[in-house]
Amino acid sequence: MKPGESSELPPTALLHRYRDAGAYTDCYIAEVEARVSHAAYVEAFYTTFVFKLERLLLKWLVSKPSTDGEAARLARGEIDSFAAWTVEARAPDQLLMADYIGRTRSWLMVVPLGEARTRLYFGSAVVPVRDPSGNLTLGLPFRPLLGFHKLYSRVLLGAAREKFTTNSSL
Fold it and tell me: Which end of the chain is flanked by fewer CB atoms within 10 Å, N or C?
């Protein structure tokens, strides 16, 4: 398996509610040679260099600042909002976040594969809206940015995975 490979949603994924309702959804996977807790994955994901750039943009463009400490608190379940997102649902192995506008969702999940291996999942949903003729559409700016989003999702997941291959303290 290549890191960042596209995959079907696992049967228990909290993101199913959006796929089943007709939203755009995606799912990417990577595996690490370590036992990774869900909290460690969430913290690693939101504190990668790549995601810190996104956090910086959110701070400047929409006044939604965040810190690494807040990422750690989110991972531990101590807070339910982080940067531009709010927790929509939690399970012991996954987290579903909604953006402040309500159009996108981000989802993180871990699945242990034996004693010393973990599969990391990252997925998104884009909630469709009705166009003037009443048809459901992703609309602007989501449709033209979908190609970038797919690449960026793989980069984000790869950066989180890399934290577990280079830093055993997580």
Answer: N
Kindly list the distances between the CA atom of residue 158 and the CA atoms of 27, 45, 131, in Å, as whole numbers in the listed order: 13, 9, 35
pLDDT tens-digit series, residues 68-92: 999 999 999 999 999 999 999 999 9
Residue 103: Cβ-neighbour burial (10 angstroms; 0-12, 13-18, 19+): middle
Tokens 């690490």 found at: 32
Nearest one of 125, 119, 98 to 24, comparing CA atoms: 125
Q: Which residues pair with 27 in a beta bridge?
A: 123
Domains of the chain: 5-164 (3.30.530)
Distance CA 121, CA 1 (A): 13
* The pair of three-digit structure tokens given for residue 147, joined into one six-digit string: 């190609």
DSSP 158: H
Residue 15 CB partners (closer than 8 Å, separation 6+): 9, 25, 27, 96, 105, 107, 123, 124, 125
Helices (DSSP H) in the chain: which residue ranges?
16-20, 38-46, 49-62, 68-75, 142-166
